[in-house]
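Look over this record as teaching material.
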Amino acid sequence: MTVSIVGVGEPTPVWRDERSTLALVVDAIRLALGDAGIDGTEVDGFTSEAQTMLGRARPDEVAKAIGARNRRFSGHVSIAGSGVVGAIEQAVLALEAGLADVVVSYYGLSLSRSTPYSIHAEDPAKAAFEMPFGYFGQPVYFAMLASRYRYEFGLTDEQLGAVPLAARAWAQRTPDALVRDPLDMAGYLADRVVSDPLRKLDCCLVNDAAAAVVLTRSDRARDARRPPVIVAGTGFGTKPVTESDYFTQNPQFLEMASVDSGRRAFAAAGLGPADVDVAEIYDCFTMSVILQLEDLGFAAKGEGAAFVASGAIAPGGSLPVNTHGGLLSHSYSVGAGHVVEAVRQLRHERDAGQVDAAEVAAVTGLGAMDHATLILTVDR
């Protein structure tokens, strides 16, 4: 039995949306259901990243809003991008087990009402032992990864800059991307340093967003409104450390859990890195892209920086990456938008941003110690 994605929905991203996170999520789900040609009354399963499902948009609230009458499965997994992408795996398992017939996987956040720093500030260990010494905040954490990589393998500013330049080039081909201004290397190098060696352009956007995906078993999927996209393989991996410890006590500092999630997803799909036509890689920071490309086997360890600098991930490159602009230029949707973009690429709906003959897509989500990978294919 195979499972397919039959609908995707993503409200046009904005910097600040006055609606609640729940309202954003419901809008995304309605768009996805309309895309699939499925009524809300038919949905009987819901999955999401833990913080969204437990605090921002609970499944009982979502189900009522869309008119679902028989919510018999609800599940959540992990945090941030790992949970968003991992929730697709959970939806697949529920459908394969017969626990649901139509599952909606959703995500939403209203980041403009808070700050990305507030999440870590609530951690007692960080407040006691890290913040007093200035080791605090996502840019600092990923700057430390970049500094270590620079020491181990060599890393130039221009190599880092290749990632946001590629993202911006893709965003310019995506009408609803939040940031579409032209960007060249001179502009990148002139950008202010946030935490050495990372500049502001190396950091993801901060905005409000939501997205949703509709899944069902493939025998039914072929009757949907749009061509189904097969979930060919899923994988989840984790490091044996807590979220609090990840950026200080992780013994494998330059290896993420993508090593395991990618291996498992490719094995489940019966495919490998060479088969991938387009990759939507979680890009909270430029360094996370480089490390994941290595972990997933697209570049050898220590060669990811040179790989992105070669132009491989930009339009016309050998491995188009984040073809909507990603978290760096399109929208901070914590990986949900990456899933939506992969589906649209495989359905060949992206007009100027379309990757020719795209048949296999890899999607990743990172959440500190956890990581999830999806392998999606056209219905062959």
About this structure: Residues 3-113+205-378 form a domain with the Peroxisomal Thiolase; Chain A, domain 1 fold (CATH 3.40.47.10). The longest helix spans residues 80-96. The CA atoms of residues 348 and 354 lie 6 Å apart.
